[in-house]
Design a protein that fits this description.
Elements lengths: L9 E4 L5 H12 L3 E6 L3 H13 L4 E5 L5 H14 L5 E4 L14 H29 L2 E6 L2 H5 L5 H21 L4 E8 L26 H13 L7 E4 L8
Parallel strand pairs: 1-2, 1-4, 2-3, 4-5, 5-6, 6-7
Helix pairs in contact: 1-2, 1-7, 3-4, 4-6
Length: 246
């Protein structure tokens, strides 16, 4: 059957104002989607994303909300449905990273990493699923991390949360496989979102292909997953060969 047309589909990208979120939002717009860019504090970035979506000839919407807070999730999903229509594609991209040694890590920082990086995926997915299941069509794309697969020396909590995202992806995919809803994850490593290039501890020669990845390369995978009805429950590594495990 090949790739399904995404023309006229409505997508919601959490953390859509910058980095991978912005690139995915624009790539989906180029593929024909109307896109809502969610933000929690960086309104100007989200507005810039929405402006770029409109410049591509699609409808763009900005929606504020903390995706790790259930009340905010209900409100932002309602805002998207009111402004653009029922949500066909959800990209769970919002994240928070912290680098702390085992001795530095506190219960509060552990809970924060789980809440922002994992609980948010649960809340957003539960909010959009009823409509997707009723329409027998939906795409859920979760952003994980190579830290989930290989571990991290300075981010046990972040790694654990992102590993939870992969497990949740597989579980939702199994439950929804016969209902027209696919659920997949993208697992990037050292993609240059600005933060990577400014980190003195990482160098391009750490990557087998010899360079950092680009946000556009992540976005291409998101469009592939949105348009493919047969790929589900998978974690696609966008990592330049850094991690080759299953």
């Amino acid at each position: 059957m090949g790739q399904t047309s995404l023309s006229g589909r409505v997508a919601l990208v959490t953390g859509g104002g910058r980095g991978n979120g912005k690139a995915i939002s624009l790539a989906l717009a180029r593929a024909g989607c109307d896109v809502a860019a969610n933000y929690v504090s960086r309104e100007a970035d989200a507005q810039a994303t929405a402006d770029a979506i409109r410049a591509l000839g699609r409808r763009g919407l900005v929606v504020k909300g903390d995706v790790s807070a259930s009340a905010d999730v209900a409100a932002l999903v309602a805002a998207v449905e009111s402004g653009l229509g029922p949500i066909d594609i959800l990209v769970n991209n919002a994240r928070r990273a912290a680098f702390e040694s085992i001795d530095q890590m506190s219960e509060a920082s552990w809970n924060d990493m789980i809440r922002v990086n994992l609980t948010s995926v649960f809340l957003m997915t539960q909010a959009v699923l009823p409509g997707m299941r009723a329409r027998k069509w939906g795409r859920i794309i979760n952003l994980s991390s190579v830290a989930a697969q290989a571990g991290s020396l300075l981010a046990v909590h972040y790694s654990a949360a992102k590993a939870g995202v992969i497990a949740a992806t597989k579980s939702y995919a199994r439950m929804l496989a016969k209902e027209g809803v696919t659920v997949n994850a993208i697992s990037p490593a050292l993609v240059d979102t600005g933060m990577v290039a400014s980190n003195p501890h990482v160098k391009p020669d750490m990557i087998p292909v010899g360079r950092f990845g680009t946000v556009e390369e992540c976005a291409e995978v998101a469009v592939l997953l949105a348009g493919n009805a047969y790929i589900t429950g998978q974690t696609i590594g966008v990592n330049g060969g850094l991690y080759l495990g299953a």
